[in-house]
Every structure is written in structure tokens, then in C-alpha cells.
Amino acid sequence: MMENSLKKYADAQNCPVRNVLDRFGDKWSTLVLLLLEEVEVLRFNELHKAIETISQKMLAVTLKSLEADGLIIRKQYQEIPPRVEYMLSARGASLMPHIKSLVQWANTNFEAIEQSREAYNR
User: Fold this and answer.
1) For the domain that residue 34 is a member of, what is the CATH number?
2) Phi, then psi, of 80 in degrees rounded to 5
3) Residue 78, phi-psi category: left (phi > 0), alpha (psi -120 to 50), beta (remainder)
4) Domains contained in the chain, number
5) What is the per-residue pLDDT across 68-119, written as a single tens digit (0 to 9) for each?
6) What are the residue boundaries of the HTH hxlR-type domain, all occurrences included (predicted)?
7) Cα-to-chain-centroid distance, residue 80
8) To 10 degrees, the CA torsion angle through 90, 91, 97, 98?
9) How far apart are CA 33 and CA 71, in angstroms?
10) How far apart are CA 50 and CA 86, in angstroms?
11) pLDDT digits (tens, 9 = 90+) for 4-21
12) Do residues 87 and 107 lie in contact, with contact meaning Cβ atoms separated by under 8 Å?
């Protein structure tokens, strides 16, 4: 019985939960999603200013990854200079209640987690 339970975790590459969490559970993706949920439409430079510590290259990589997964929409206008806006897709919007629950859990438990880490590292 236990062997069957453990088998379902063996194929990590094809595990939907692990695969999806790996994509938006990086250092920046969740923050980008939260910003887009709050402000609705942002341009690249607005996102970059809002997340002061992210490099332009890393922001570009993050946005491409989120777009590839269908979590955000990139809209490019044929103007000079070019204007590109980012917004949550319907799929991205459907993810936000779960992210917000995780944010709430993290805020509630962060202090205790920090204390546990300190005690562990002593």
C-alpha cells in the first residue's frame, strides 16, 4: 500500500503540481502576478520600477515564462516608440485566489518560520 502511494511521486517531471509550481514559484513570478492582479495593466518599465531589485533581463525572462504558460497576456501596440503592456489572462486570474491564500498563510506564519530557522541553525 505504501509503495503505491510513493509511486505517484516518482515521476517528478510529469507531475502537474510540481511542474506548475516550479514555473511560478520562482523568485519573481508570484510578485509579477500579484502586481498585475492589483494594477491590471502594466508596461515593462512600470513593472521594473515597481520591483526595484529585479534586473531587466530577469524581468524579461519572467514575463516570457508567464506568457508561455498562459498566465499573462502581452499586448504590443504598433506605435513609435513601441508600447507593450502586460495583464493577467483568465488562467492567471483563476490562479490568484490560491496565490493570495498562500500569501496570507506566509504572512501569518513568517515570524514563527523565522524563529524555527534560527533555532535550527544554532
Assistant:
1) 1.10.10.10
2) -125, 120
3) beta
4) 1
5) 999 999 999 998 888 999 999 999 999 999 999 999 999 999 999 999 999 9
6) 15-114
7) 31
8) 180
9) 8
10) 14
11) 667 766 776 777 777 788
12) no
Whether 71 contacts 88, CB under 8 Å: yes
Q: Are 81 and 96 in contact (CB under 8 A)?
A: no
Burial 16-54 (b: 16+ CB within 10 A, else e): eeeeeeeebeeebbbbbbebbbeeeebebeebbeebeeb
How many angstroms separate the CA atoms of 51 and 64, rounded?
17
Report the amino acid identity of residue 117: R
d(CA 44, CA 50): 10
Q: Which three cell numbers stand for residue 8?
A: 505517484
AA identity, residue 68:
A
Return d(Cα 46, Cα 81) in angstroms, integer: 16
Do 28 and 58 contact (CB within 8 A), yes or no? yes
Residue range of the domain that includes 115: 2-121
Q: What is the pTM of this model?
A: 0.83
Nearest Cα neighbor of 96 from 29, 50, 14, 48 is 29
122: three-class secondary structure by DSSP: coil
- Residue 104 burial (CB count, 10 A): 10
